[in-house]
Each structure stands twice: as structure tokens, then as C-alpha cells.
Amino acid sequence: MIPYGRQDVTQADIDAVVEVLRSDFLTQGPAISRFEQEVAKKVKAKHAVASNSGTSALHIACLALGVGPGDLLWTVPNTFVASANCGRYCGADVDFVDIDPRTWNLSVAKLQEKLVRAKKEKRLPKVVVPVHFSGQPTDQEAIWDLAQEYDFRVLEDASHAVGASRNGEPVGSCRWSDITVFSFHPVKIITSGEGGMGLTNDAELAERMEMFRSHGITRSPQRFVGIDLSPKSATEPRSAAPAWYYEQQTLGFNYRLTDIQAVLGASQLRRIDLYVERRNELARRYDAALKGLPLQLPTVMPGNRSAFHIYVVRLRRNPTPETHRRVFDELRQRGIGVNVHYMPVHLQPYYRQLGFAPGQFPEAEAYGESAITLPLYPELSEGDQDRVIDAVKAVCQ
Ligand SMILES: *Cc1c(COP(=O)(O)O)cnc(C)c1O
């Protein structure tokens, strides 16, 4: 079976990991901040906070933004459940904004309509989580303008889009958002085994994410509240806290990344441009080979460079759930490890039990009944890609 996605691990990655295993620190060592700095530099953000998954990065990002009970988080239905769950972890309510039928990303027009209604009903969101679906950047400038007008925070879920850019601006620079989150799960663009990162240009948000990542503890003297470090007289300097001293100031978690994972991520980061280039190359090959078929192929908007985390096609001829299922099963039977990204999140039993129902987000629902993810990863050979293409032609013609 040709899988839909697969990590690429080189000898250099293995050597980097082995070196950490022989070093003094397996976790909480120097590799974490090195990895953070390298990612921040790559995407032109000021601060980076690594954590043990994209999901935990989303959770602490929401906490840092002050999301809590009574608040509202909006995201899209066409995403992995984690983009919505992060709001639920904080006790907030979640709602969704339908997608654009061309880009399969958040529809800015629908967002605007929903904001107008929400303002009248006095139920505006605290945070909106746009997802750079499949690696294609969302229309962040427009979302950011709306954020200023309607006073909400913007948390970009860029789990698919490490290495993507928009009009030359790297995804993760947070030029049009408060925080951007990456995932380093093995199916994503680069991997640290498990892992994630929150990027921001706001030092306060970065420090809050660091605290929530590690038990709510701070070791920054300027933040201490439980010890009097003020000078005894005007001529004396501020005194220092004891060397053992730290403070738990809020309830946090152990969401730390290990040094073992961080060096793997850092080693992979060196090849990110090659990976994204190769993914784009394979995507163009799919585009050329599949264009005569009754399929909707990915549309990359002008100015966008997609990271092409996944290559999705949609059935255009008779896209009923039955056809979808048949095409999917036939491709699997031919050894093609197709997948579906995503069944709409609001139709998951957990979200239905919160009151969501079919019909609420028609574009995402129609999308979910017609989308098929084809194999795409840097090490996919052209021969294997041709096998995928032949199978798709045979099944979809
Ligand atoms: C993978 C993914 C996540 C979660 O990342 P993990 O690192 O697996 O926790 C969140 N959002 C989206 C859109 C993803 O694809």
C-alpha cells in the first residue's frame, strides 16, 4: 500500500538523535531553545515555544490568549478535531465558520457575515482559529482586518503549512495573527516524532505559553510575586532570589518537548525548503496528469506558496456518499493508501452532542462527502505516483 503521507528520516537525523542520547540531557537541555530559535528565524517570528504536540501547542496558545469558560472559539469544520478541541479544553464554547468551496480554507465572506450577526446577538468570538488547510495559506490579511474591527484574537493553525508563504511572507511570521501553531507529527512537513510549536511576536504571550507548558511555573525573577526582592535602601540594588527558587503562579501542564525530539526536528528543518519544493513538484505532476478527469483539483491562490501537506481531489461527477465510498474503497483495493481529510468536525458525535447537526455548514459537508487525499510525500517516487495516477484514472474516468 502506498501511504498518503510518510516521514523522511536521514542518517543525519539519526546521528543527531544518537548524539543527544549520549549527552547529559535527554530533556530540558539546550536542544529545545536551539530548535525554537531556528524555527523562529526561519519563519521570521520573534518568539517560539516548543511543546510535545501540535495539540498541546494549540491548548497553551488558547490559555495564553486568555480563553476560558464563557468565551467562544471559532474555527472551520474542515480540520482535524484538535483545532476545535483546544477551545473545549479551556472550557470555552466552540462554533464553526464554513469553508470556501475553491480553496477549502475558511471563507472570509462567511466569517464576516457571521461576525455581523454575532455582534447583534452580543456573542462575538474571543478567538478565531483559521486553518491553513493542506498547506495553503489562508487569507490572513482579511482575517486580521476583521479581528481589529470585531476585537477578537487570531490563532493560526498552521499544522499543515510549515514552509508555506503568502506574498513572500512566511506562514508563522504572525504578521497577521497573535499566535501561529505548527505540528511536527510524522505525517506533517517536518517531524520531531511528536511535537508542536507556538510562534508569536508578543513576549508576554510567549512567556505565558512557556508557563502553561511547564506546570504554570516561572523562573523569571521579574515575574516573581511571592518573594520580596525590593532593595532595602535607595542605595542598594534589588536583591536576588535564592538559586533554588521558582514560582508556580497558575495551573499548567507538562507539555514539554524532549531534547531527543528537538534535535530531530532541528535536523529535519534543514531540509524544509527541499521538502516543500518536492511536494510542489509532485503536486504539479498530479495536476497535469489528472486535469481531464471529473475531479476538482486543488486551487492555489495567486501569491500563495502551499506547503502541500496533502493533495486532495474532489469527485465532481455524482458526488454522493455512496460514490465517495466506492471510489475510496476501489483505490484502497488497488493498493493506494488514500484517506479523507476531513469529515466535518461538527458532525463528530462529541460535537453533535453539543448541539451541532447536519446542514449547518453545507460547503464543509459537501466537501467531506467528495474529498479524497492522494499519496504525497517527499520520498514518493515518480513510479509510485504514476501507479496512483493510473488507479485514479481507472476508477474515476
Ligand atoms: C496534525 C494537526 C493538529 C494536531 O497536531 P498533533 O501534533 O498531531 O497534536 C492540529 N491541527 C491540524 C489541522 C492538524 O493537521
Concise summary:
This protein has 397 residues and is α/β, with parallel strands linked by helices. Helix content is 37%, strand content 13%. The model has no long low-confidence stretch (mean pLDDT 97).
Description:
The chain has 13 helices and 15 strands. It has helices at residues 11-21, 30-43, 54-64, 82-89, 108-120, 140-150, 203-213, 259-269, 272-290, 321-333, 349-352, 362-368, 382-396, and strands at residues 47-51, 72-75, 93-96, 127-129, 153-157, 165-166, 169-170, 179-183, 196-200, 217-218, 247-248, 295-296, 304-305, 311-315, 371-374. The strands form 4 sheets. A 7-stranded mixed β-sheet has the order 1-9-8-5-4-2-3, sandwiched between helices. The protein has 397 residues and is an alpha/beta fold. The model has no long low-confidence stretch (mean pLDDT 97). The radius of gyration is 22 Å and the shape is globular. It is 37% helix and 13% strand. α1 (11-21) runs antiparallel to α8. The structure holds pyridoxal-5'-phosphate. Pyridoxal-5'-phosphate is lined by residues 53-55, 79-80, 82-83, 131, 157, 159-160, 183, 185, 196.
